[in-house]
Amino acid sequence: SYVLSQPPSVSVAPGETARITCGGNNVGTKSVRWFQQKPGQAPVLVIFYDDDRPSGIPERFSGSNSANTATLTISRVEAGDEADYYCQVWDSSSDHYVFGAGTKVTVL
Amino acid sequence: EVQLVESGGGLVTPGGSLRLSCAASGFTFSDASMSWVRQAPGKGLEWVGRIKSRPDGATPGYAAPVKGRFTISRDDSKNTLYLQMSSLKTEDTAVYYCTTAGNFYDWGQGTLVIVSS
Q1: Most CB atoms closer than 10 Å: which of A6, A10, A26, B13?
Q2: To the nearest whole angstrom, how far is the Cα of B16 from the nearest Cα of chain A?
Q3: How many CB pairs under 8 A join A and B?
Q4: Across the interface, which of B47, B97, B103 has its CB nearest the CB of A48?
Q5: Backbone region of residue A33 per phi and psi (left: phi > 0; alpha: psi in -120 to 50; beta: other values)
Q6: Which is it for strands A103-107 and A9-12: parallel, antiparallel or unpaired?
């Protein structure tokens, strides 16, 4: 089955840039979504189709996807960005959706 | 405004059964593929399964850990999605979310299922 790999944690100072990677075999050929989840809350979609933002998501959130790595970039990080972030793809070979294990972003 | 409201969670003993419901409003439910996603305590998100819209055949699909034990169905006349869970195991303990499978944009608040003796 298809596997997505994320670093367990990323730490970043306020105002700096956080980059969260999502590795997978030829993930660049798939469409990646990214979700933000804060404690006790349902996930929120922040990026779809690799680099599109739903309405209401700040421009500080951006995505890229190439070869074997997709990346979520959060620019000018704020305290409110502290959360768990998950990448997700649809694996056509199994017709299953797959989530990465998640990355905890800590704002120092 | 889209709303997804899950219900039916609770405490169940191993080997038991439980049916979750997800009441949908604010969009054309019959045109939407829907998914269930779960999250065990302190763990990450796990896709459970999906059912396509009736125009697309209403075909269900399941993740390996639940295949053969869980059944996803829908009642478009009631705008409701269901998750029938049987032969429950302790590792099925989780918050269960329903979400619009086409884009995963809309999510319910989740319902907690605890499988314990």
Answers
A1: A6
A2: 26
A3: 47
A4: B103
A5: beta
A6: parallel
What are the pLDDT digits (tens) for B12-58? 999 999 999 999 999 999 999 999 999 999 999 999 999 999 999 98
- Contact status, residue A99 vs residue A50, Cβ threshold 8 Å: no
* Best B107, B109, B111, B112 residue to mutate vs chain A (most A CBs within 10 Å): B107
Among candidates A78, A4, A30, which has minimal Cα distance to B44?
Answer: A4
Q: Which token pair is A76?
A: 């000018």
In whole angstroms, what is the distance from residue B101 CA to residue B79 CA? 15
| pLDDT tens digits, one per residue of A34-64 | 999 999 999 999 999 999 999 999 999 999 9
